[in-house]
Design goal:
The protein has 380 residues and is mostly helical. It has a two-stranded antiparallel ribbon. The two termini are 50 Å apart. The chain has eleven helices and two strands.
C-alpha cells in the first residue's frame, strides 16, 4: 500500500502520522531515560561540588574568573551542554539535601526529600530541540527508505544504511545552530534581543558557518551510528521475525532489535563520541568565557592526541555508561515508534474498509433505485 503522491500514505500511514508516532516515541524515551542521567549528574556534583571546583572542567587555569562547571545532560535523544556559574541556573543538580551512597540511594532520597518531579529537572528546555530533531530524523528515514526501495525496486540490505546516514545528516544540520543558540542563552543568560545581537556579531565576524560550530564531530559520531543502527535493526528484526515465525514485528521484537542494534552502533562509534564530548566541553569554554573561537584541530588529530596520552583505551573511555544509556533509549524509542505506526496503519485500514463498505452499499442502493425506475417505465 504505497502511494508516491505528495501527502498521501506511504507504508500504510501518512507523513503526519509518522511524525506523531516519532514525537510520541521521543517523549516516552525522554521520560524513561532522563532520570538515569539526572542521578548520574547529581552523583558527579556530589563528588566535585562548586566549593571544591575551580575552573577544572570549563576554564583554562591561566584565567582567574568565577567558578564554572560544564557537564553533558542526556535526555535519551540528544546530548546537551549545560554550563553553571557558581551553581547558578543549575540549582537542581547542586542543591543536595543529603549525601548519596549510590545510584539506588540517590533515586530513593531524591524522591523522598525533593519529590519525584526532581528526577526530570532540566528536561523541558532540552525537549524544545530534541523532539523536533527526532521527528525529522525518524520521518526522513522512513520516507527515504521507502523511496529508495520503490525507485530501485529492491529490498537490498544497504538501503537502510544509506537512508539512516542521510536522515541523520539532515537532522544534525537543521538542529546544530539551534543547539548553539541554546548554549549561548543558557551560559550567558541573554534576552532574546541580546541573543539576536550576539548572533549577528558572530556571523559578521566569522560568517554563517560559525552557527554550525561543532557540526563536524557531531556528524562524525551520529551519521555512522545511524547508518549502523538502522542496518542492524532491520537485519535483527527480520531475523527475529523469521526465528519466531512472525509476519510482522511485535513490540518486543522491535524492543529487542533496537537494544541490540543500538549497543553495536554505540560500541563501534565510541571513539567519535569521546571526541564529540571533548569538543562540546570546549564549546562551553568559549561561551562561558566569551572569547573568540580558537581554530580547533581536526577530529583525527584529536583522536591521535587522546591515543598518545591515554592509549587506545582512552578512545573507548566511558564504554559501559554509554552502552547503559544508549541501549534502553534505542529500545524504547524504536518500539514506541513502531507501535505508533502499527496503530495508525490499523486505523487507516479500518477507515478504508469502512469506506469500501459504504461505497458498495451506496452502489447497491443506486442499482435498486435504477431497477425500480425501469420497472415503472415498462409498466407505463
Amino acid at each position: 500500500m504505497t502511494e508516491n503522491s505528495s501527502g498521501k500514505m506511504q507504508g500504510g500511514i501518512t507523513p503526519m502520522q509518522q511524525m506523531l508516532a516519532s514525537g510520541t516515541g521521543a517523549l516516552f524515551t525522554s521520560l524513561f531515560v532522563t532520570p538515569l542521567d539526572v542521578v548520574k549528574i547529581r552523583l558527579q556534583a556530589q563528588r566535585t561540588p562548586f566549593s571544591k571546583v575551580f575552573s577544572v572542567q570549563c576554564m583554562p587555569w591561566s584565567i582567574q574568573q568565577p567558578k564554572w562547571k560544564c557537564f553533558l545532560y542526556c535526555n535519551g535523544l540528544m546530548d546537551h551542554l549545560y554550563v553553571c556559574q557558581n551553581g547558578n541556573s543549575c540549582t537542581a543538580w547542586y542543591k543536595t539535601p543529603t549525601r548519596f551512597t549510590g545510584t539506588l540511594d540517590a533515586f530513593v532520597k531524591i524522591i523522598r526529600y525533593e519529590g519525584i518531579r526532581s528526577l526530570w529537572s532540566g528536561l523541558p528546555p532540552t525537549l524544545v530541540m530534541a523532539v523536533p530533531a527526532t521527528v525529522i530524523y525518524f520521518t526522513s528515514y522512513d520516507q527515504l527508505r521507502d523511496l529508495l526501495r520503490a525507485k530501485l525496486d529492491s529490498q537490498a540490505r544497504y538501503i537502510p544504511l544509506v537512508a539512516g546516514a542521510v536522515a541523520r545528516l539532515g537532522a544534525v544540520t537543521v538542529i546544530s545552530p539551534l543547539e548553539l543558540i541554546r548554549t549561548k542563552m543558557q551560559s550567558r543568560q541573554l534576552s532574546y534581543r541580546e541573543l539576536r545581537v550576539c548572533i549577528q556579531s558572530a556571523v559578521a565576524q566569522d560568517g554563517w558557518f560559525s552557527l554550525w560550530r561543532g557540526w563536524g564531530p557531531t556528524v562524525l559520531r551520529d551519521v555512522p551510528f545511524s547508518a549502523l543502527y538502522w542496518y542492524n535493526y532491520e537485519l535483527v528484526k527480520d531475523w527475529l521475525c523469521t526465528r519466531f515465525c512472525l509476519t510482522e514485528a511485535t513490540f518486543m521484537v522491535s524492543f529487542a532489535a533496537g537494544a541490540i542494534s543500538g549497543t553495536v552502533a554505540a560500541i563501534l562509534t565510541l571513539p567519535f563520541d569521546v571526541v564529540k564530548t571533548q569538543r562540546q566541553i570546549q564549546l562551553g569554554d568559549m561561551e562561558t568565557l566569551q572569547v573568540a573561537t580558537p581554530r580547533s584541530s581536526s577530529t583525527w588529530l584529536l583522536m591521535q592526541k587522546i591515543r598518545a596520552e591515554s592509549g587506545t583505551r582512552g578512545l573507548f573511555a566511558g564504554f559501559l555508561p554509554r552502552v547503559i544509556k544508549v541501549a534502553p533509549a534505542c529500545a524504547i524509542m524504536i518500539s514506541t515508534y513502531e507501535f505508533g505506526k502499527a496503530f495508525f496503519q490499523k486505523m487507516n485500514q479500518e477507515r478504508q474498509l469502512d469506506n469500501v463498505e459504504r461505497s458498495s452499499i451506496f452502489q447497491t442502493d443506486q442499482s435498486h433505485i435504477g431497477g425500480r425506475e425501469k420497472g415503472h417505465i415498462s409498466e407505463d
